[in-house]
């Protein structure tokens, strides 16, 4: 196999095959479909980051956590927000410590001068000293690159940073290295698996998209949703899980401001179990809709559509 | 395989998807790691490397079905075998492969038998039976003429009209209503759920028919020619005047997040420029020249809060 990225050895494969990924994820409690498992497998083989998009609450962040669980890696998380900059994402010099070091140098020098063998540190020596690794504060991106053990890097909600900050990520994502002017270039020894999640509040740059594998996680189909409910909600009966999944599917066909996501479905199922409801009738559904839907107008609409008559 | 992939990427680009050279290379590399006989895995591998926006997924899927339906063969064979097993018909798996539009036990079926099978397939939600019915229905009703440069919409229409899916749907719901043991009416909630369930299955059936027609057309005229006739504009380049209902729905979905994106961007810019809050009066006044549409919002000058100074003076001495 040629080595187009110049990455050297991309390390041993983390996963054997696509079905193995799927099974492994299921073991740590994440029920992936064919597409998700396939992309995770490829991300490892091609040593590429994965850009995960999709509606809120469909398990984008959870995927990264589960992969970390599965591979036994440490999860390093960079939560993006507006105004995130280099010093918070990459690295920062420990300014206070540097200052202390310079002052401490002066003090010890004075003592030495009294003792007789005066040797003032030259500027070059001092500079080399205070810009060494001892004074470097690593932030998530650099930490993931420098880690010697296997890590999973999660860059959460990457669409929240400005376009300019996004460019910071490019070097890390494509070359797995960080350039620090005073120190030189830090390269990754073990390649991290990288997941970026986006809620699609703005279009990401082409350059970023090109470097990633793209994975769109949509609402699961009914069989998978049923399986997820049964898996994640302890003590639920098959019958109730089935009913929950079917009602949620019907709700998603209605035009609502915010469709119920998987996490809300799970909350609802848990609530029903706690309340001791075994079959959902119209009353029970109406009383607990507010867990599933987050807008009053949505709740009214859904109640009307679901409970009055069959669809148009 | 690489040639096929190149053709596929070419076709995607002609369809308007922005596929860069790097992405093409990625896809070529990705194919190495995917077992070639697994069509689904191949689809997701290509999708992840070539398509970088969810609104393009549909266009990708259509093109993929055309290029890799027969190209790799094995996927289709697998389907055939599975179908044969499930429906307990003794039809050889490769049958439909060789002779489009002719031969096979399916064609000897009467319309009544076909309708009965369709009903059964929808009642159980049996996917493989649906595919069998789709095959039979297309042979019987579509009347595909070889070599005609069409996209298959007409064949689809002909087949579906004869299958009368809407009536089957009604029958299914009526059947469910009658099947209540205690004879009482279904509650509104149950009825709604059942309706959605069957509607989903009917959509699956429709898709099965569509796939079948497409497969036969590819056999007839080759992938490239067909891809040209079924090429559809992406949601962003859609001609609104001539859009179908489905296309408009896609458009609606594509537009929905736009307002949010716009709001985010405007808010960001406003904060960036340190402008004050919206000046409503000035905006309305300004809007008069546009006929009352607030085209140009006006903002107040930012007024940084003045620091409060307190002087504590000790004047006792």
Structure description:
- The complex is a heterodimer of chains A (312) and B (317).
- Chain A is built from 14 helices and 9 strands.
- Chain A has 312 residues and is α/β, with parallel strands linked by helices.
- The longest helix of chain A has 21 residues.
- The N terminus of chain A is likely disordered.
- In chain A, a hairpin with a 3-residue loop joins β6 and β7.
- Chain A is elongated, with a radius of gyration of 26 Å.
- In chain A, α12 crosses α13.
- With 317 residues, chain B is mainly α.
- About 12% of the residues of chain B have low confidence.
- Chains A and B meet through α2, β1, α9, β9 and α11 of A and α2, α3, α11 and α13 of B.
Query: Which range does the strand content of chain B fall in?
Result: under 5%
Count the E strands of chain A. 9
Q: What is the helix/strand order of chain A?
A: HHEHEHEHHEHEHEEEHEHHHHH
Instruction: Tell me roughly what share of residues is in helical segments of chain A.
Output: 40-55%
Quaternary structure state of the chains depicted:
heterodimer
Largest sheet of chain A: 5 strands, parallel
The helix fraction of chain B, in percent, is 55-70%
In spatial order, strands of the major sheet of chain A run 2-5-8-1-9
List low-confidence stretches of chain B. 70-106
Proportion of β residues of chain A? 5-15%
Total helical elements of chain B: 14
Structural class from helices and strands of chain A?
alpha/beta
Number of strands of chain B: 0
Estimate the mean pLDDT confidence of chain A.
Answer: 83
Taking Cα atoms only, what radius of gyration of chain B do you get, to the nearest Å? 29 Å
Determine the N-to-C terminus distance of chain B: 98 Å
Rg for CA atoms of chain A: 26 Å
Key terms:
heterodimer; A: 312 residues; alpha/beta; five-stranded parallel sheet; two-stranded antiparallel ribbon; 9 strands; elongated; B: 317 residues; mainly alpha
